[in-house]
Write a structure and sequence with these properties.
The chain has ten helices and 21 strands. Helix 8 links the parallel strand 6 and strand 7. 42% of the residues are buried.
């Protein structure tokens, strides 16, 4: 693999600033963000007032812990535009992510927000080893999902040659990699493995391709998968992190020269790690739930937003800004399957719409090949249903899940009592995917 370490003189000055300089900028911007949210978003004003805090109470960065946490249901309860801090007419773009009930979480961006987003994504792409004039194969999905358009925004800001192939049509993915000869690819790690298999089907050697770096995100992936991808393609594989509520891709990025965790762009996003049970901040370097406060967002500020992702904060290495470890899990029951967020409640709601099925189910996750698979085990509503009726109910549920959640799932309908019962909390998820 080629050495893609960026020249430090080409970095943004804040990337290699002192911690004191970063903290001073954060405090200044945090004061603005708290006041902006308080004065322009009724939810935040009510939330701060109920907690007995005011933006003027922030004298030091540590004072942020006095302010209330924000959760995803707060955003959903204010659907569609109740969390916007500027008039709708000043919103230049709207994105959305799916929720547990199919009601999306809507986020907005002013023109300045889009410029900041482009800046942090460009910074991320540069940290991965890409340079102005390089070609990028962007296989993230385009649309309401922030992935494809967010990466494209940063690629434009960095001056890359980008082609928006999006996801799907895997044979064409390989054909264009062979024909266009991009230096970089942005894609979910599981789909990268499908592209790898397609190289073999078409008789091409992936190690002979032009790809020098792959930028992977939107779903958890292991260092074992990194090693497989790097060896198969003879390219670097680095991690990118983001979520639509906070901005989209580009909140943090792994640097190609170290690959030792993701540097958070702390001039735009202030990170905390809390105990998921108590909500209290944990000690430096301890694992807990990642919380973000936006420092520069105009249209959709977020104050102490609980991501539900489990990680820990570490000192900077390749950059001055702190690192977050690879996400090790979730503090809730959300599943990330092939880049799609799935909650058991979504499966339950789809299940309840099928008259022939009882309200008992389990979700089994596996990875028999390259891609994660989901299987729903449920049971007949009435004892003695015919095999034909059970098969039709399974087909109907599978179609409901595809339509409302956006993923394909196998469905098995067992006889009455076929789904394991629990005397305590129901065990909804059986994750049989390989670990490590």
């Amino acid at each position: 693999m080629k050495d893609l370490t960026p020249d430090r003189k080409n970095l943004d000055p804040i990337e290699i600033a002192s911690r004191d300089e970063i903290a001073a900028l954060q405090l200044e911007r945090l004061k603005w963000s708290l006041r902006h949210a308080y004065e322009n978003v009724p939810f935040y004003r009510d939330s701060f007032d109920a907690a007995g805090v005011h933006p003027d109470d922030l004298k030091d960065l540590s004072d942020l812990a006095r302010f209330p946490l924000t959760v995803k249901t707060d955003l959903r309860d204010n659907y569609p535009f109740g969390m916007f801090a500027v008039p709708r007419e000043q919103v230049a773009r709207i994105h959305a992510s799916s929720g547990t009930t199919g009601q999306p979480t809507v986020v907005g961006y002013t023109q300045k927000d889009l410029e900041h987003w482009g800046t942090v994504v460009a910074r991320s792409l540069r940290a991965a080893g890409l340079r102005t004039g390089d070609m990028l194969h962007n296989a993230y999905g385009y649309g309401l999902f922030t992935g494809g358009l967010g990466i494209h925004l940063g690629a434009d800001a960095l001056g890359l040659t980008t082609y928006p192939i999006s996801g799907g049509m895997t044979p064409r993915q390989v054909r264009l990699i062979e024909d266009f000869k991009p230096k970089g690819i942005t894609v979910t790690p599981s789909y990268a493995l499908s592209i790898l298999d397609e190289f073999a089907r078409q008789g091409f050697n992936p190690r002979a391709s032009s790809l020098e770096v792959g930028i992977f995100g939107a779903e958890p992936w292991t260092n074992a998968m990194r090693l497989e991808i790097e060896q198969a393609f003879d390219m670097h594989a680095v991690d990118i992190y983001g979520l639509s509520e906070v901005m989209g891709p580009g909140v943090s990025m792994e640097c190609v020269e170290t690959k030792d965790g993701l540097h958070i762009w702390e001039d735009h996003f202030y990170p905390e790690v809390i105990n998921p049970e108590t909500g209290e901040p944990v000690g430096e370097g301890e694992q807990g739930e990642l919380v973000f406060t936006s420092l520069t967002k105009e249209a959709f500020p977020v104050i102490r937003y609980r991501t539900r992702d489990l990680t820990r904060l570490l000192p900077g290495t390749a950059r001055s800004m702190r690192r977050m470890e690879k996400i090790t899990g979730r503090s809730d029951d959300m599943i990330i399957l092939r880049g799609v967020n799935v909650f058991p409640t979504q499966i339950e709601e789809a299940l309840m719409k099928v008259p022939g099925l009882a309200p008992h189910f389990q979700i089994e996750l596996s990875r028999p090949g390259r891609m994660d698979q989901m299987r729903i085990l449920c049971e007949e509503a009435q004892p003695g249903m015919s095999d034909e009726a059970c098969a039709q109910a399974a087909k109907t549920l599978s179609a409901h899940i595809k339509q409302t959640v956006g993923i394909s799932a196998a469905v098995d309908v067992a006889k009455s009592g076929g789904v394991a019962r629990s005397e305590g909390k129901a065990v909804r998820i059986l994750d049989n995917r390989p670990k490590g």
